[in-house]
Specification:
Elements: H1 9-25, H2 27-40, H3 46-63, H4 69-91, H5 95-103, H6 114-126
Helix pairs in contact: 1-2, 1-3, 2-3, 2-4, 3-4, 4-5, 4-6, 5-6
């Protein structure tokens, strides 16, 4: 996974595809490995973190019926937290665009998802002046 930091887009795409292929064979193992890698590399630049998160999303979507319930719950929680963190980090520079996207998740009469609220709150804290 260290190769995700390669600046060459073709290499990044190959890493993403490799993670997805491995995820087809061993979804729980790949999801746990990605999760552990992201935890160990909490300073990983967000563009590179996104590659791993995208791969995790693809593996979850393609293997949701095969995942153990506890794995799915843990991975989805971690994935959503990581995605929220990415939005907050991007929002430090592009607050208007991120806010525009987050606000689309607020629908009249529907309680927003926990991570939408958390992202909204963290955006306000990280951009408060």
């Amino acid at each position: 996974m260290d190769a995700t930091t390669d600046k060459e887009p073709l290499v990044q795409e190959q890493i993403y595809e490799a993670l997805c292929v491995l995820g087809e064979a061993e979804p729980e193992e790949i999801l746990h490995s990605c999760d552990e890698y992201l935890r160990q590399h909490d300073k990983l630049a967000y563009p590179h973190r996104v590659i791993i998160l995208k791969a995790m999303e693809t593996v979850v979507r393609n293997s949701i019926d095969l995942l153990d319930k506890s794995t799915a719950k843990d991975v989805i929680w971690e994935w959503q937290q990581a995605a929220s963190n990415v939005l907050v980090a991007v929002g430090q520079r592009f607050i208007n665009k991120v806010m525009e996207e987050v606000l689309t998740k607020f629908q009249p009469g529907i309680l927003p998802h926990y991570f939408v609220l958390q992202t909204f709150a963290n955006l306000s804290v990280s951009n408060g002046e």
